[in-house]
């Protein structure tokens, strides 16, 4: 190994002398001097010709390629779960708005216009109530109560079923 004084006299930029580079690996003061003269000398002093990864170069390359494939798979999986971008959201909202507007316009154009019918009469207790036989809820054919209010809304023709509402606190809830 050479001395620090011999190193400083023989060292110049972009030197490849193995004895000088070997001295750099052992002496920190000379390494500082050499980096001031040539910053790239630090990388040349590291050497590396004798460095072989465990398992050989082929095992190292296969490990690196496996990591590259894993990272590619992670990136591809993450790309599927991205948040929808704002232009796409805007396009979706415009499509929904156009569909709803078209549906509303079509419905209004085809809907029959019916004038609202006034409520025919409001009756109090003892008004009979009629119903058809195909009703799934209980049917009240007659109802007599002093506290009840019965409202009947007649249909358009005499054959239509009348809508009857009974307001009484004594009636069961499911009736």
Q: Could you describe the 3D structure shown?
A:
By secondary structure, the chain is mainly α. Among the domains are: 4-45, no CATH class; 118-175, no CATH class. The chain is 46% helix and 8% strand. It has six helices and three strands. It has a three-stranded antiparallel sheet with strand order 1-2-3, with no helix packed on it. Helix 2 packs across helix 3 (28-37). The N and C termini lie far apart (109 Å). The model is unreliable at 122-126 (pLDDT under 50).
| Widest β-sheet, arrangement of strands | 1-2-3
Overall average residue pLDDT: 76
**Structural class by secondary-structure content:** mainly alpha
Strand percentage, roughly? 5-15%
Task: Give me a quick take on this structure.
By secondary structure, this protein is mostly helical. It is built from six helices and three strands, in the order H-H-H-H-H-H-E-E-E.
Keywords, separated by commas or semicolons:
single chain, 175 residues, mainly alpha, three-stranded antiparallel sheet, rod-shaped
Which helices and strands, and how do they pair?
Elements: H1 4-10, H2 18-26, H3 28-37, H4 41-45, H5 57-80, H6 86-110, E1 121-124, E2 149-153, E3 163-167
Helix pairs in contact: 2-3
């Amino acid at each position: 190994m050479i001395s620090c004084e011999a190193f400083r006299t023989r060292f110049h930029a972009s030197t490849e002398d193995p004895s000088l580079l070997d001295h750099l690996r052992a002496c920190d003061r000379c390494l500082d001097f050499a980096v001031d003269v040539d910053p790239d000398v630090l990388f040349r002093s590291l050497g590396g010709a004798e460095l072989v990864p465990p398992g050989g170069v082929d095992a190292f390359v296969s490990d690196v390629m496996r990591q590259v494939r894993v990272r590619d798979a992670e990136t591809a999986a993450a790309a599927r779960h991205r948040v929808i971008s704002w232009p796409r959201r805007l396009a979706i909202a415009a499509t929904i708005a156009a569909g709803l507007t078209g549906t509303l316009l079509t419905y209004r154009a085809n809907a029959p216009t019916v004038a609202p019918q006034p409520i025919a009469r409001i009756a109090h207790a003892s008004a009979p109530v009629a119903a058809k036989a195909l009703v799934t809820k209980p049917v009240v054919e007659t109802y007599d109560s002093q506290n009840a209010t019965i409202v009947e809304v007649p249909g358009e023709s005499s054959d239509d079923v009348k809508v009857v509402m009974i307001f009484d606190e004594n009636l069961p809830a499911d009736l």
